[in-house]
Amino acid sequence: MIPAAFDYVAPTSVEDALAALAQYGDDAKIIAGGQSLLPVLRMRLNAPEWIIDLGRIESLRGIRDDGDAIVIGAMTPHAVVGSDPLVAEHAALIAKAVEHLADAQVRHRGTFGGALAHADPAGDLGAPALALGAEFVIAGSGGTRTVAADDFFVDLFETAIGEDEILTEVRIPKRTGWGATYEKFVRVAHQWPIVAVAATVRVDGGTIAEARIGLTNMGSTPLRARAVEDALVGQPATADGVRAAAEHATDGTNPPSDLNGDADYRRHLATVLTRRAVLAAAGA
Amino acid sequence: MTVTDERPSDAIENEIGRDRRRKEDQRLITGRTRWTDNIVLPGMLHLAMVRSPFAHATITSVDTSAAKASTNVVDVFSGADFGEELGAIINAWPITPDQVTPAHSPMPSDRVAFAGEIVAVVVARSAAEARDAAELVEVEYDELPAALDLKKSAADEVLAHPDLGTNKSALWVFDSGEAGTGGNVEDAIAKARTDGIVIEREYRQQRLIPAFMEPRSVVVDPTGEQYTMWSATQIPHIVRFALAATTGVSESKIRVIAPDVGGGFGGKLQVTPEEWIAWAVGRRLGKPVKYTETRSESLMSAHHGRDQWQKLTLSAEKDGTVTGLKVELLADLGAYVAIVGGGVPVLGAFMFNAIYKFPAYHFAVQTVLTNKAWTDAYRGAGRPEATYAIERLMSELAAEVGVDPLEIREKNWIKHEEFPFTTVAGLEYDSGNYEAATAKAKEMFGYDELRAEQMARRASGDTVQLGIGISTFTEMCGLAPSRVLGQLDYGAGGWEHASVRMLATGKVEVVTGASAHGQGHETAFSQIVADRLGVAFEDVEILHGDTAISHKGLDTYGSRSLVVGGEALVKAADKVIEKAKPIAAHLLEASVDDLEFSGGRFSVRGTDAGMGIGEIATAVFAAHNLPDGVEPSIDSEATYDPVNFNYPHGTHLCAMEVDTETGAVKMRKYVCVDDIGNIVNPLIVSGQVHGGLVQGIAQALWEEAVYDDAGTLVSGSFVDYLLPTAADTISFDIEHTTTPSLTNTLGTKGVGEAGTIASTPAVVNAVVDAVRHLGVSDIQMPCTPERVWRAINGPGSGGSTTEAAMPHFDAEGGQA
Amino acid sequence: MTRISLTVDGASVSDDVEPRMLLVQYLRERLGKTGTVIGCDTSNCGACTVHLDGTSVKSCNVLAVQADGAEVTTIEGLAQNGELHPVQAAFRECHGLQCGFCTPGMIMQSVDLLNTNPKPSEEEIRLGLEGNLCRCTGYHNIVKAVQHASGQGATA
Questions:
Q1: How far is it, in rounded angstroms, from Cα B457 to Cα B439?
Q2: For B810, which residue in chain A has the nearest alpha carbon?
Q3: Given an 8 Å threshold on Cβ–Cβ distance, is A36 in contact with B809?
Q4: Residue B797 — pLDDT band, cuts 50, 70, 90?
Q5: Chain A interface, Cβ < 8 Å to C
Q6: pLDDT band at C29 (very low <50, low <70, confident <90, very high)
Q7: C130 touching chain B per CB within 8 A
Q8: A5, A119, B380, B422: least surrounded by Cβ within 10 Å?
Q9: Could you tell me if A105 and C46 are in contact, meaning their C-beta atoms sit under 8 angstroms apart?
Q10: In a shared domain, residues C61 and C90
């Protein structure tokens, strides 16, 4: 319950944070909202010598409209994201996923960027970010670069963010008017999802015109269900129309087996939840 | 003018039966609490435990040098550093004379027998520094094969304690033929095999963790003439006795205090290595010490509950009339025989026959040692296991006969006019009315409407099916008549003590030997005493949980506080009145024979003359004018030993929705009508029922302590040991019928465990009922979505739980 | 050691703390605010819930140094001038507590819930409390207490 001792620095600018990261390197750990990191430290599963706190960098907070995208600062708390009108209008899938992310206290403290950078395949934001084709803006000593969602999640708890880099903001292309659902399957409310499906669709005259589907906890990273997306296009937004496409939700997945379900059960869940998510997103 | 008119307005109403708001709450809702971990003493040192990561290993060396050199570390001890002063952890209930009981050192120096066992303790000036240094203690182990699986351990494939030569601790048997309480069960089964029905099932009672919200904590202060221990325990009196018995300190030099204690549910009914180590370290160093466990430590090392395999054979006639019940249990003790230990399944031995008129009954439990955390009492202790088995079986019998499960129960239960009823297990049920409770529950539930909906969903092939589960339970509670405990070889009695002190100002101090940890004794006991003495509820103070104040007691467990402890209060209060009577007569210049006591006043029959009990207390304090030869005190005490258990019962009805596509289950409705006799405080009773229900429901649906094949507890945090939240539960419909218990003056029965005992089979029966038409006759607990889905889609009851956890708190995660 | 200054239950406090000290440990060990308790090590139980700059957080999941400059309200600062907060009163009225260990966190989270949603439905209450574990009450009377505090009339 007591972390190992560490030194602490709370820079007030991204530049200072990068400098600290450069200085302490391997011995340092970045803390954003801390909602996943602090339990790790309390249980002494990790013991960094330095903690670099991004919490005092005001420029990393906030949500803005950037033309064809909305931009969410990495240090914006989940609760702010979840109640933001821009997010609700242009990235409804994010709003849906945030609504039941962890619990109220964690949503007050945990941050959008922190959760994505943590890259827990059971985290609630990866699949929606992937499905929406988010772009991750990463700052390093040489300036900033932008990484596409498809390239961001590398492996279990591993992203494209380099050891000397910081995620500063996430650009989410607008999908205004798309229906969205985050179908989360848990045994008790405070659990990480056993499986979840993020679905956002554009329906045109009762037919699915476009669909974007992300899967949570179906592999070592969040996954994009492209086979499902492709199969959905042109299908009527009905249970029968969606059923066959949803069967593709298992394509390319490699889900874990644990206390909450074996891999084959998770695959089965993915197909059922995908069907339900798509139908709900389509307003069917 | 009547006497009662002179009582304070608050006391006009009978206190018993009122929904008094709790006296305890003011401090609890404002944070003015005294949890053990809050206690800070001058010079207090902090302990951190070094625990074995292995389930079974020889300790080859313990190197404490680096830890000792760490900042502000005062000392580091391993088991070898202490001799007999460390004492021993006792088992109070050897269930058979030949029980195999491993020696249990609080901190073994040679071999560890479960993962989480303590091998060294660090003492430092701060808790953080103690934890830092604990990481530096280097322990070398030689791993030994571990006995983990219960059935394999029962076959002695791998030995949990090689020196004992067997894992089989004790075989305890009850047979109605031999006891003369019924017929021969084998005959009944043989007959049923030819011309009746035989239901044979094997049920798993998964391992559970009590998971009280307050982690255990202990503070030992060895300064002063007496050693004082504060502990988050249910049993301060028993801890004191055991400390004296095993550490060589005179009982009179030991004071144990259970301050505010944050829940127990049986989980704090234990004498623990942590307490004993803190005791030894405090004595050795002569300084106050504190140890508070983390939740992870609590889950891995505080005792677990349940963990049985139940092999069951029920015989019946073709029409569903039961003829025999044979119960063969394997019960996992874990690494050591805990304080109640094998007594837990024995407490269930008398309850498998439940409310039904079985003519023949056989019960046998084999207790088994394994290399897992020790098991002991958890809410219900033995009776939930029994109730689960019989209530599941009765529903299976109904399915076999092809009748409604309520009908099969009614056919076999004891009718209300048949009380008192001596059961096939040899207990005398004093009172009850199963018909009345069931009728009321059915009506509240809307039983027929829900059955109709179930049929409609089945007919339409709805992906969400509805099931109705029934549990018509009874239990024996109020532990316990000392004579009975003696017959069962339990190491202590079952009496309870109370004293009533009449203060000079007319206020009343009541001391009870029951030790509350959330139940609301201060409120309910005040109501009892206020009524008995005719004083105001607010004028009664309940003192408990400190052996220096409450010098005598047997603490709180087994739904005993009210039915045993409450009765002791009644008797002590009555003695106060008896002692006050001659003084009142003297002061009123009347004959004792002319006095009557009512509403807190002695009055002289046929006159207006009278005197309140408080006025007498003041007069006794002054002692200026007492009758000759009368001592200047009306304080009184009583020790009450119950003559019988009492037998709450009830009908619980549960509706569950099962999503057949995912296996997810959702509770739709839960109704219970319990008969717990007379009710002292309906508000407190409702709380006990609600909380009990959810713990029982949680066994049915969510909770399971899972070990991997190395003996590591996989469900070792609240991430993986799934307690339900508000969002996972529903509001309940609870009601009561009342047949007063005949075994105590107040007519009360226990309620603390009823909800937990009853609800588990109601829920599982409902889940199975929802999908029985799909070929399912059992689903192993907890009924996870995966198990439900597999049961629907394949043979068996859903398989075992995968022994791995999700790695959410991975050390490698970034920017979190 | 890092110097922090903050306001806790209306009082200004300032201390040198180790960066590793959790806010809950600072409250309990340095300020003696033992009304806030620790129930787990994975941030599941919510017993340590306090308000940080006006919203609920789990104080085991915040470093004391992160609270530098902030305003913290604990269960001990909820009652004003000897008057219980309506949520505190409702928990007593509706028997929303038994052992009381989860109660400080449960009350603080309930207050936060009602701050953002003054008339929550039963489902909204249940979801709003999903980050707080209680082992005694089965939640039934906790939900009733929140309904009662919100003026929605429920009693136990």
A1: 25
A2: A40
A3: yes
A4: confident
A5: 1-8, 10, 31, 34-35, 38-39, 41-43, 51, 53, 55, 79, 100, 102-106, 108-109, 189-190
A6: very high
A7: yes
A8: B422
A9: yes
A10: no
pLDDT band at B557 (very low <50, low <70, confident <90, very high): confident
Confidence of residue B800 (pLDDT cuts 50, 70, 90): confident
| CATH number attached to the domain at B3-33+495-640 | 3.30.365.10
C133, C69: one domain: no
Position C154 scores a pLDDT of: 67
**Do C96 and C69 fall within a single domain?**
no
Q: What pLDDT, on a 0 to 100 scale, did the predictor assign at position B2?
A: 34
Is there a domain that residue C53 lies in?
yes
The predicted structure's pLDDT at residue B808: 74
pLDDT for the residue B11: 44
- Tell whether A118 is within 8 A of chain B (Cβ): yes
Which residues of B fall within a CB distance of 8 Å from C127? 726-727
Residue written as token pair 């028997």: C95
What does the pLDDT read at residue B253? 97
**d(C-alpha B601, C-alpha B584), whole Å:** 9
pLDDT at site B795? 79
Does C24 lie in the same domain as C51? yes
Q: Identity (one letter) of the amino acid at B709?
A: D
Q: Cα–Cα distance between A236 and A284 in angstroms, integer?
A: 10
Q: Could you tell me if B130 and B47 are in contact, meaning their C-beta atoms sit under 8 angstroms apart?
A: yes
How many residue pairs bridge chain A and chain C with CB atoms within 8 Å of each other? 94
pLDDT > 70: what percent of chain A?
Answer: 100
Determine the structural domain holding residue C8 and report its residue range.
2-76
Q: Count of domains in chain C?
A: 2
Q: Is the pLDDT of residue B752 over 90?
A: no
Partner B, chain C 5-24, Cβ-Cβ below 8 Å: 18, 20-21
Which domains are delineated in chain A?
Answer: 7-52 (3.30.43.10), 61-173 (3.30.465.10), 180-281 (3.30.390.50)
Under 8 Å CB-to-CB from B53, ≥6 apart: which residues? Answer: B115, B712
Q: Mean of the pLDDT values across residues B120-133?
A: 98
Among B135, B785, B814, select the one facing A159 at the smallest CB separation: B814
Three-class secondary structure assignment of B477-490? ECCCCHHHHHHCCC
Domain boundary among C45, C76, C107: C76
Write the ipTM: 0.98
Cα–Cα nearest to B211, from B297, B290, B149, B127 = B297
- C140 and C94 both lie in a single domain: yes
Contact call for B732 and C100, based on CB within 8 A = no
pLDDT, one tens digit per residue, over B491-504 is 899 999 999 999 99
The shortest C-alpha distance from B541 to chain C (Å) reads 18
B residues 165-224 lying closer than 8 A (beta carbon) to C:
211-215
Measured between beta carbons, the chain C residues lying within 8 angstroms of A35 are: 43, 61
B812 pLDDT band (50/70/90 cuts)? low
Contact B28 C107 (CB under 8 A): no
Residue matched to tokens 């929550």: C120
Residue B41: exposure state from Cβ atoms within 10 A (0-12, 13-18, ≥19): middle
Cβ-defined contact of B38 to C99 (cutoff 8 Å):
no
Note the helical H segments in B349-500.
383-401, 405-412, 434-445, 447-460, 482-487
The CATH number given to whatever domain includes residue C71 is: 3.10.20.30
Of A3, A102, A106, the CB nearest to C20: A3
Q: Smallest CA–CA separation between C61 and chain A, in Å?
A: 6
Name which of B86-100, B596-610, B739-753, B802-816 the model is least confident about.
B802-816
Q: Radius of gyration (Cα) for chain A, nearest Å?
A: 19
